[in-house]
Design a protein that fits this description.
The protein has 229 residues and is α/β, with parallel strands linked by helices. It is 36% helix and 27% strand. A six-stranded mixed sheet has the order 6-7-8-3-9-10, sandwiched between helices. Strands 2-1-4-5 form a four-stranded antiparallel sheet, with helices on one face. The protein binds adenosine-5'-triphosphate (ATP) and magnesium ion (MG).
């Protein structure tokens, strides 16, 4: 099939949670390869483990078992500072619940990853402004999060994930709470990032219309990932 090395390789990833003494085995041996330039839709029933898988892919959560390779490197072997720096430089993450900081405005929220990386404030501000304009929010830079609509907040979250020009975008239901038209504009944005900037993406979605537009679909069932093409 594909002779290239995958950009991301997931091998036999397992993850369980223990709550009040009850163990829930969420990921039960997930194998998944994602190649450079692909946009993979991750679908599946509520509670099946899509967000958990995305968090592990994004190195935000450690699997109990198995490995995640980026360009052949097993990233969970990195120590914490190296892992944090890898994450900051490689991955843009859009959370299911956007997790913007309410006391900051759109520009400041978008600048945050760049400031964390150590980019100086002026440059971070310019980069954030450029990406906010790209997502259609050039005229909302100084609105606080609470002064933005749901779709605008989601677009700020997308802008924040992109400010450092990551090679990988992981988006968890980026259009989950939006009306159809606003959702579609986010779909178009994600697709243009892939087409124009070559970004590789995994997008968790319940929206089959979006899933159909992406290069490949993977469904999570019983703790495993199955290709559904
Ligand atoms: N930190 C946690 N502690 C305990 N259980 C958790 C934790 N995170 C997730 N779970 C459990 O793991 C299962 C999978 O959760 P996850 O959020 O990955 O599902 P999901 O597929 O993203 O669902 P949805 O479509 O509703 O967003 C759920 O049953 C959830 O209760
Ligand atoms: Mg989820």
């Amino acid at each position: 099939m594909n002779n290239q090395q995958p950009l991301i390789r997931v091998t036999n990833v397992r993850k369980s949670f223990i709550t009040n003494g009850n163990r829930v085995d969420v990921l039960q041996g997930v194998d998944l390869d994602i190649y450079e330039g692909e946009m993979v839709a991750i679908v599946g029933a509520s509670g099946v483990g899509k967000s958990t898988l995305l968090h592990v892919l994004g190195t935000l959560e450690r699997p109990d078992h198995g490995e995640i390779f980026y360009r052949g490197e097993s990233v969970f072997t990195y120590n914490e500072p190296k892992l944090a720096s890898f994450r900051n430089q490689t991955i843009g993450f859009v959370f299911q619940f956007h997790h913007l900081l309410p006391e900051f405005n759109a520009l400041e929220n978008t600048m945050m990853p760049a400031l964390i990386k150590g980019v100086n404030a002026k440059e971070a501000c310019e980069q954030a402004e450029a990406i906010l304009s790209r997502v259609g929010l050039g005229n909302r830079l100084r609105h606080l999060v609470g002064e933005l609509s749901g779709g605008e907040q989601q677009r700020v979250a997308v802008a924040r994930s992109l400010v450092l020009r990551p090679s990988v975008l992981l988006a968890d239901e980026p259009t989950g709470n939006l009306d159809a038209r606003t959702g579609e504009s986010i779909h178009d944005l994600l697709i243009s990032l892939n087409r124009d900037d070559g970004i590789t993406a995994a997008v968790v979605t319940h929206n089959m219309e979006l899933a159909e537009k992406l290069s490949r679909r993977v469904t999570l069932v019983d703790g495993k990932a199955l290709s559904i093409d």
